[in-house]
Structure formats: C-alpha cells, structure tokens
C-alpha cells in the first residue's frame, strides 16, 4: 500500500487500530547514527572504519517532529501502540505512555529500582540531564525555569 493510500485509510476512519513500527530512520534526524545504513555503526565496523561521529552526545539528543507527531496521534486516540527497535528512549521522553510502547532492543536510558521495580527515565530540562526521576511523576518539570 502506498503512503498516500495509508493516509486515506487513517483520515477516512477506515482504520480503528493504528500501530506504528519504528526503527533507526525515525531517529537519524536527531543525530543518532543507525546501524545498517551506509554510514551505520555496523557497516563502518565491518569496513574496518571508526565509529561515526555524532553532532552531539547521545544523551543530549532530542526527539524529532516525527516522534512528536506520533505523540499527537496517540493523544487523539488514533495511534494505539508503538513497536520500536530503537534504544534512544525518544518515544518515552516525547510522551508516549509506557503501556503503549514495546522496545524490542531495550532502552539505553531505562533504569529499574532493584527493590520495588519502579522504572526511571532520565529527562533533559534546559540542557541538563536529570537522572533518577520516575516516569509517572514528571508533571512538575513543566513549571521549572532556570
């Protein structure tokens, strides 16, 4: 099915359960290198070359407009679930609820409390990486001003 046909299915209300499957392509515009592309990490390693340089540290990269569009589709009740191959945490950091996300390869930033099992995801606020913040109680961060 062509992409314009997909748009017609969504816009026309023919689809009741939209599920997105995301991979490296959604995050490469955020300065996150892919693995299999021409300048991907595995491709360069196979060729005996060094790792690709990123324009900013991995933990400082921000979610793309595509990530935010998925958030809006979820909030509108159109997007029901995301299956992601990415480990960059952009779906959670952009606002996708944990219960609507499967991360097939894990998450480089996810931390679990060994005592209670609570999940913690670091957040960026005004360029600072904040660690050990629970994913469910972050509404107060919106009001922070530095």
Give a verbal description of the structure.
- It is a single chain.
- The chain has 146 residues and is α/β, with parallel strands linked by helices.
- It folds into two domains: 3-108, Rossmann fold (3-Layer(aba) Sandwich); 110-146, no CATH class.
- Helix content is 21%, strand content 16%.
- The chain has four helices and seven strands, in the order αβααβαβββββ.
- The chain has helices spanning 3-11, 41-46, 65-75, 90-94, and strands spanning 18-22, 79-84, 101-103, 111-112, 119-120, 123-125, 128-130.
- β2 (79-84), α4 and β3 form a beta-alpha-beta unit.
- Mean pLDDT is 76; it is low at 132-146.
- Keywords: Hydrolase.
- It is an enzyme of class 3 (hydrolase).
Fold topology:
Layout: H1 3-11, E1 18-22, H2 41-46, H3 65-75, E2 79-84, H4 90-94, E3 101-103, E4 111-112, E5 119-120, E6 123-125, E7 128-130
Give a quick precis of the structure.
The chain is an alpha/beta fold. It is built from four helices and seven strands; from the N terminus they run H-E-H-H-E-H-E-E-E-E-E. The chain folds into two domains: 106 residues, 3-Layer(aba) Sandwich (Rossmann fold), CATH 3.40.50; 37 residues, no CATH class.
**Tally of strands:** 7
Q: Biggest sheet, strands in spatial order?
A: 1-2-3
Name of the CATH first level of the largest domain: Alpha Beta
Helix and strand succession? HEHHEHEEEEE
Looking at the structure, what is the overall shape?
A: globular
Report the radius of gyration as a whole number of Å: 17 Å
Distance between the termini: 48 Å
Number of DSSP helical runs? 4
Query: What kind of sheet is the major sheet?
Result: 3 strands, parallel
Percentage of residues in DSSP E strands: 15-25%
């Amino acid at each position: 099915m062509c992409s314009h046909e997909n748009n017609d299915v969504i816009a026309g209300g023919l689809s009741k359960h939209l599920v997105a499957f995301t991979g490296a392509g959604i995050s490469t515009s955020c300065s996150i290198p892919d693995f299999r592309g021409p300048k991907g990490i595995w491709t360069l390693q196979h060729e005996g070359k060094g790792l690709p340089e990123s324009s900013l540290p991995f933990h400082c990269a921000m979610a793309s407009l595509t990530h935010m569009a998925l958030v809006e589709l979820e909030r509108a009740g159109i997007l029901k679930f995301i299956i992601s191959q990415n480990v960059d945490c952009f779906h959670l950091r952009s606002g996708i609820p944990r219960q609507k996300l499967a991360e097939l390869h894990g998450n480089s930033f996810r931390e679990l409390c060994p005592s209670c099992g609570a999940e913690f995801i670091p957040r960026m606020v005004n360029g600072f990486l904040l660690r050990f913040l629970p994913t469910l109680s972050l509404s107060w961060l919106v009001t922070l001003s530095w």
